[in-house]
Amino acid sequence: MARYLLTRSLMLCLSLLAASLVVFLAIEVVPGDPASYMLGMNAAPDTVAALRDQLGLDEPLAWRYLHWVFGMMRGDFGVSYTYKVPVAGLIADRLALSLPLAGLALALSAALALPLGLIAAARRGKAADAAVMGVAQIGIALPNFWFAMLLVLLFALRWQVLPAGGFPGWSDPVAALRSLILPAVALALPQAAILARVLRSALIETMDQDYIRTARAKGLSRSQALTRHALRNALIPVLTILGMQCAFLIAGAIIIENVFYLPGLGRLIFQAITQRDLIVVESGVMLLVVTVILVSFVTDLAYALVDPRLRRRA
């Protein structure tokens, strides 16, 4: 296990280094000068040059990259060009909303998908299986932003049981959680549909294995063999989807945050792109990339815990 952990940790470090280079270079080659954008089209050239010097945009590219990377390692993400405040504070404020939203959506997704996948696999070829898979197909096909607007029309405007948008802050936890219910459901529905289909397929494939037939021959019912033996071995592809969903729910909630007017990390990055606030874009995107890589790393460790063959192979 120690060797497996060391190998994965080395791959994690190399992935982070490569990702930082790609993110920095991709944003630096984007056309447009932040100083010119901030001062307007009619700004004097010497004023633009002074602002570029103040922002550090005239420094060599390699020096700016090293300064940015080592600053992030110390927790210093720089100062926003637009808001004139530390980027770390901006991101921390937005993560206070985005992380609970992603966690709530992931919990809802797993809570819906696991029983539905088990029911569909246990009733393979029957009406319950067809009903679950039909609902899952609809969930995959529906765009989450359209479903979000439908939720607003029903629960906020017609029945008036939940707020239509906005975030009151965590000073009132009950009001804050109520404001996150609809966006969390809108994010969780397509993810739950995907997860349920993957779990069903993995369980059906596992149920055809020899050790399941042996367990059935020893007297276990189909449902007992499904929950006691097949479920654990079917979790490996499910863990992959859960890891991907966790990263998506943090990084891919920009549309949902805009539908519900939530001041999350995705909306911050979107606004920074429109304002040419490169330091916010670089730091925000890099944080999302780090989240995806770390989730993949944790998923690999979860593989090793679920499947001992991976540890022996490593």
Automatic annotation (TrEMBL):
<dbReference type="InterPro" id="IPR035906">
    <property type="entry name" value="MetI-like_sf"/>
</dbReference>
<feature type="transmembrane region" description="Helical">
    <location>
        <begin position="101"/>
        <end position="122"/>
    </location>
</feature>
<dbReference type="GO" id="GO:0005886">
    <property type="term" value="C:plasma membrane"/>
</dbReference>
<protein>
    <submittedName>
        <fullName>ABC transporter permease</fullName>
    </submittedName>
</protein>
<feature type="transmembrane region" description="Helical">
    <location>
        <begin position="234"/>
        <end position="256"/>
    </location>
</feature>
<feature type="transmembrane region" description="Helical">
    <location>
        <begin position="134"/>
        <end position="157"/>
    </location>
</feature>
<comment type="similarity">
    <text>Belongs to the binding-protein-dependent transport system permease family.</text>
</comment>
<keyword id="KW-0813">Transport</keyword>
<keyword id="KW-0472">Membrane</keyword>
<dbReference type="GO" id="GO:0071916">
    <property type="term" value="F:dipeptide transmembrane transporter activity"/>
</dbReference>
<dbReference type="InterPro" id="IPR045621">
    <property type="entry name" value="BPD_transp_1_N"/>
</dbReference>
<dbReference type="InterPro" id="IPR000515">
    <property type="entry name" value="MetI-like"/>
</dbReference>
<feature type="domain" description="ABC transmembrane type-1">
    <location>
        <begin position="95"/>
        <end position="299"/>
    </location>
</feature>
<feature type="transmembrane region" description="Helical">
    <location>
        <begin position="177"/>
        <end position="199"/>
    </location>
</feature>
<keyword id="KW-1133">Transmembrane helix</keyword>
<dbReference type="Pfam" id="PF00528">
    <property type="entry name" value="BPD_transp_1"/>
</dbReference>
<dbReference type="Pfam" id="PF19300">
    <property type="entry name" value="BPD_transp_1_N"/>
</dbReference>
<feature type="transmembrane region" description="Helical">
    <location>
        <begin position="285"/>
        <end position="306"/>
    </location>
</feature>
<keyword id="KW-1003">Cell membrane</keyword>
<keyword id="KW-0812">Transmembrane</keyword>
